[in-house]
């Protein structure tokens, strides 16, 4: 099934008969294990999801980098990226499949980010008034955009660190004080 998806087959265009023929087995053999092609595809997607990275529990930045590096490496795995692009492109036609994938794979990854962000907020590394759902999107979206939506974009070494450091620092230029914060000259005058 993976090869068929990589070659551009759509979920709608696949049949259990074609999958069995490609696997060199009878259709009954396939049906004994999976009730339909959506169940088979979900198992294929789960098989592409390797184990999550081990988080140190240290600084939030380090664990955020580990989580994003895991996504970067998955993006470099062309097979996983090709299959995920296929699924995303067909999500409206197979909402049950997407919901199953989301509930079993995506939700676990998001929980890992939420846990790290909450721990970072509790340790004073991240503002506690920020929504962890939104923060997770800010960290994950650049990597997913490159890995899934723009398969021609590079996923260079250090990209995870660059994303994490950019989001943590905000979008202000280096050396600029946040809006409303005193400048270095103002800080010297008040001391």
What's the structural blueprint in terms of helices and strands?
Elements: H1 2-6, H2 16-23, H3 27-33, H4 37-48, H5 60-76, H6 78-89, H7 95-122, H8 132-149, H9 159-169, H10 184-190
Task: Write structural notes for this entry.
By secondary structure, this protein is mainly alpha-helical. It has one domain: Tetracycline Repressor, domain 2. Helices cover 65% and strands 0% of the residues. It has helices at residues 2-6, 16-23, 27-33, 37-48, 60-76, 78-89, 95-122, 132-149, 159-169, 184-190. Helix 2 packs across helix 3. The longest helix is centred in the middle third of the chain and has 28 residues, at 95-122. It is elongated and about 60 Å long.
Distance between the termini: 69 Å
- Rg (CA only): 21 Å
CATH fold assignment: Tetracycline Repressor, domain 2
Structural class: mainly alpha
Q: In total, how many beta strands? A: 0
**Overall 3D geometry?**
elongated
A few lines on this structure:
It is built from 10 helices and no strands.
Short key terms for the protein model shown above:
mainly alpha, 10 helices, elongated, Tetracycline Repressor, domain 2, 191 residues
């Amino acid at each position: 099934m993976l090869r068929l998806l990589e070659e551009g087959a759509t979920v709608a265009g696949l049949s259990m008969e074609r999958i069995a023929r490609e696997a060199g087995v009878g259709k009954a053999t396939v049906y004994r294990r999976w009730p339909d092609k959506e169940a088979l595809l979900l198992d294929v997607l789960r098989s592409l999801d390797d184990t999550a990275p081990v988080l140190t529990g240290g600084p939030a930045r380090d664990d955020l980098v580990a989580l994003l590096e895991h996504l970067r490496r998955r993006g470099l795995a062309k097979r996983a990226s090709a299959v995920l692009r296929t699924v995303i492109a067909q999500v409206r036609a197979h909402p049950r499949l997407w919901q199953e994938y989301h509930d079993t794979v995506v939700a676990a990854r998001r929980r890992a980010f939420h846990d790290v962000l909450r721990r970072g907020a509790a340790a004073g590394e991240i503002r506690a008034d920020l929504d962890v759902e939104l923060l997770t999107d800010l960290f994950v979206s650049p990597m997913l955009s490159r890995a899934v939506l723009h398969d021609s974009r590079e996923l260079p070494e250090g990209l995870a660190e660059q994303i994490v450091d950019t989001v943590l620092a905000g979008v202000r230029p280096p050396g600029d004080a946040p809006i409303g914060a005193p400048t270095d000259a103002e800080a010297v005058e008040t001391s």
